[in-house]
Every structure is written in structure tokens, then in C-alpha cells.
């Protein structure tokens, strides 16, 4: 049963990545604390996504594509509360901007960073309930003659829901809030423009599964959806300490 569920999630991830380039959302993981007090963790994550972004004075950009590569470092503050720092790189591509046919930015891969925290609120017999908060800062640049483009923005994700654990695996998910805020700057000698940017849809839901690897390792896959965006991602990690 466990192997069949793992195969199903892997197939879903592969098909999703093959069919589209997905969104600027980033991997969230289970909405409950996953570390004991004093325990440390380290892992790598990848999220590929697609979303619609609203630009003032420029209408809406559809299918904004992102690729996010992160190293996740975690720390168990208590048995029911942990925190993490995420460092890595991301790229952002913009196509299909309403009413601007020539607008096409193939963003560079630039430094990305953020942090997050999770807490278990209700503990049960294999079923825990909790909530998480995470924020990421991303940047991407491109040159489309005669303009230099630069995107600077941050994203906030807040989620709540259950985590069910049994036989070395857990299934998790729930609703979440997604907020994005930033600027797109276009400049050339003697001329410059700046446009604010925000998400087209704030609310969504997500689901994922995590599987144990040996005594201290784990792997997970995840899908996220909002009204105008979706994303798939995965990662592997290891725990250290007590």
C-alpha cells in the first residue's frame, strides 16, 4: 500500500512537471512541527510553478513561470514548534502580458532566501493539527533592448491543516493564503518606469506526502493550487541531534 501511494505521488509529480511550467509558490511541507526540541535538520527543495500576476498600469501577466532551488535548515525550538531558514536561487519568466504582445522577460537565476515556522496545535493518535507561516524574497533580471528589467518581490504563505502519520509516512494538506508584493522596474539611460505587482488570487489548497528514508532521512512531494496558480515540488532532508 505504501509503495503504491509513493508511486502515485511520483507519477503525479512527473506528469505535472511535463505538462506545464508551474508557479511562484514554494514548497511548504506538513503544517505541523516535525522536529523535537533541540533537533536540527538539513534538506534540499525544488519547486516549479506558474501563476498570474497583476501589474498596475500593465494589466495582468498570465503564466508567470518560476523555478526555485533551496537549501532548508531547520531547528526544533520545542517539541511542538520549529523554525527554518531557506537559502538558494530562483528564476522568473514573464510572458503573455495582456495588451502588450512583445513583452517577454526571461529572468536570470538570482539569490533567494526566506524563513518559516510551524507549530502543532492539537496532538492526536496519529493525526495532528497545526499551522505554518513562511516568507520568501526573490529577484530576477533581464535585458530586453533598450530596457533593463528587474523584479524584486516577496511572497507570504500561511497554511493550516492536519498531518496523518502511520508506518513511516505521513499525508498532509489544508487551505492556505498566498500574498505577493513587489516591483517590476524598467530602465534605460534617461528613462525609467516602475510597476507594482501582486498575486491575482489569494486563497488555495495544498496536499502532500512524506516518506521515511532510513533512520533519519525523508522525502516528500507536494502540489499547491489557487484560483490562478498551481505548483508542484519535492525535496529530501535529514534530521540530526536528540
Features:
disordered N terminus, 68% strand, 242 residues, 12 strands, mainly beta, Lipocalin
3D architecture notes:
By secondary structure, this protein is mainly beta. It is built from 1 helix and 12 strands. Strands 1, 2, 3, 4, 5, 6, 7, 8, 9, 10, 11 and 12 form a 12-stranded antiparallel beta sheet that branches. Mean pLDDT is 86; it is low at 1-23.
Q: Kindly provide the name of the CATH class.
A: Mainly Beta
Which word captures the global form? elongated
Poorly predicted ranges: 1-23
Q: Helix and strand succession?
A: HEEEEEEEEEEEE
Number of strands: 12
Distance between the termini: 31 Å
> What is the annotated CATH architecture?
Beta Barrel
The number of domains is 1
Tell me the CATH topology: Lipocalin
Explain the layout of strands and helices:
Layout: H1 2-19, E1 40-55, E2 59-78, E3 81-94, E4 105-106, E5 110-122, E6 127-144, E7 147-166, E8 169-188, E9 191-199, E10 203-213, E11 217-226, E12 229-240
Antiparallel strand pairs: 1-2, 1-9, 1-12, 2-3, 3-4, 3-5, 5-6, 6-7, 7-8, 8-9, 8-10, 10-11, 11-12
Quick description:
With 242 residues, the chain is mainly beta.
Amino acid at each position: 500500500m505504501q509503495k503504491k501511494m509513493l508511486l502515485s505521488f511520483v507519477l503525479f509529480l512527473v506528469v505535472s512537471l511535463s505538462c506545464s511550467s508551474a508557479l511562484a509558490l514554494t514548497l511548504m511541507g506538513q503544517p505541523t512541527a516535525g522536529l523535537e526540541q533541540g533537533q536540527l535538520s538539513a534538506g534540499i527543495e525544488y519547486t516549479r510553478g506558474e501563476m498570474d500576476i497583476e501589474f498596475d498600469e500593465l494589466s495582468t501577466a498570465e503564466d508567470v513561470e518560476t523555478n526555485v532551488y533551496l537549501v532548508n535548515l531547520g531547528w526544533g525550538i520545542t517539541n511542538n514548534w520549529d523554525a527554518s531558514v531557506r537559502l538558494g536561487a530562483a528564476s522568473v519568466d514573464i510572458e503573455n502580458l495582456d495588451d502588450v504582445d512583445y513583452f517577454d522577460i526571461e529572468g536570470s537565476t538570482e539569490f533567494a532566501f526566506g524563513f518559516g515556522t510551524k507549530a502543532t496545535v492539537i496532538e492526536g493518535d496519529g493525526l495532528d493539527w497545526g499551522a505554518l507561516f513562511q516568507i520568501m524574497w526573490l529577484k530576477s533580471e533581464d535585458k530586453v533592448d533598450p530596457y533593463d528589467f528587474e523584479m524584486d518581490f516577496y511572497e507570504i504563505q500561511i497554511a493550516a491543516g492536519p498531518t496523518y502519520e502511520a508506518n513511516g509516512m505521513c499525508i498532509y494538506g489544508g487551505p492556505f493564503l498566498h500574498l505577493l508584493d513587489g516591483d517590476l522596474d524598467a530602465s534605460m539611460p534617461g528613462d525609467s518606469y516602475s510597476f507594482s505587482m501582486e498575486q491575482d488570487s489569494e486563497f488555495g489548497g495544498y496536499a502532500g506526502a512524506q516518506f521515511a528514508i532510513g533512520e533519519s532521512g525523508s522525502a516528500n512531494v507536494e502540489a499547491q493550487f489557487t484560483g490562478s496558480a498551481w505548483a508542484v515540488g519535492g525535496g529530501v532532508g535529514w534530521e540530526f541531534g536528540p
